[in-house]
Amino acid sequence: MDRRPVRRVEFDPPDDFAVPPPAWPWSLPPVRQLVADGLDLAPMHGFFSYLETNPNRSSGDPDFHEMSHGESFLALLGLGSSRP
Length: 84
Prior knowledge:
Elements: E1 8-9, H1 29-37, E2 39-40, H2 44-53, H3 69-78
Antiparallel strand pairs: 1-2
């Protein structure tokens, strides 16, 4: 198994792939953007390290590195109203 982190996702259809129909999931804007442009991924570890280095002094950010992926994501969503 390759253990390198995923850095980019691209749509790479086989040669005999037909043009996608204008139906789900191809009708979703994020899917259309992924097919058209690909997707560069930023590691959440780096983002959480940035938040840890630059804490929000008024609300007190949680220790994201001590949480599971799901817990840290939900905690990050909860911070949306407290961080500029």
